Amino acid sequence: MLNQYTRRLIALASVGTLTFTLAACGGGQQAQNGGTEGETTGASEEDSQLSGSVAVDGSSTVFPITEAMAEEFQQKHPDVRVTVGVSGTGGGFKKFCNGETDISDASRPIKEVEKEACAEAGIEYIELPVAFDAISVIKNPANDWAECLTTEELETMWRPDAQGQIDNWNQVRDSFPDQRLSLYGPGVDSGTFDYFTEAIMGEGGASRGDYTASEDDNVIVQGVMSDQGGLGYLGLAYYEENQDELGAITIDDGNPDNGEGCIEPSTATVEEGTYQPLARPIFIYVRRSAAEEKPQVQAFIQFYMDAANRNLVSEVGYVALSDSIYQKALSRFEERKTGTVFEDGSTVGVKLNEVL
Q1: pLDDT tens-place string over residues 65-79
Q2: H/E stretch holding 231
Q3: What is the radius of gyration, based on Cα positions, of the chain?
């Protein structure tokens, strides 16, 4: 039987197949949630009288979590409509700082230019981590030569000066075959793009541009599936959902303190702290005025951060935060603490318990 997440990804995959293009800027998709049965908590009988709308947009990586939360929340509050769009982290912030949405899904912290846009529009925001992700490097299942890559080899493939120069696997490692290398990855509006480039190249946004780019992770999945020499990167949930038709490449960061040798992307390696440097926290940003003026937004965030609903995070393929981090995040929301704790915009190597 298909679970809610699988059904939602199938719906997104259909859209992604129809819109499979060489576009660096993904268009926004918006899904209106239906409702399915589930056992969750976080709302009182009084809250069941809630009505109105909650508008969410942003990261495709965070989308499965928010969508799962929205579906369950609407089971308890059938008169509340939660819409969850997928415009990428950057696209989501554009709408959020323009006052078009109540919540922005984000796979990286807000950027300086986005902070300025929100400030100019008088938008105050509350930053809440919601889970950990492992950016997964994927390959075609017919690829039997690349089981593990070092972070240096990933840099060789993706650095800006590789554009038009590195297009064969044997340029990455001498023992690799004479096979064309085709790359697939998130577009520039994606927080996954920002994190990956910072973690691998040491500079956010530093990347070659001659690859198939999309904010829709299903486009990346479809591209690598159909290309024997294909390699891409995306969130763990999208790999796990398609792991029968994709391979995951293990990563060696060369630092034995993070685990010896090649480490696979998984819930276990994220929890152990060994999948470095591609494990990262992911977020939602809540418009303060929406939290204060719209009871349905307040109730949805309380539901989202409720420990009793944490199973939804793992159900869709991500790693739940620890109890202490969830409690600190919920306190930030209840106390309406605005702004970001990531002043330099980076989460690489940051420990949430220390900065929240």
Answers
A1: 999 999 999 999 999
A2: strand 230-234
A3: 20
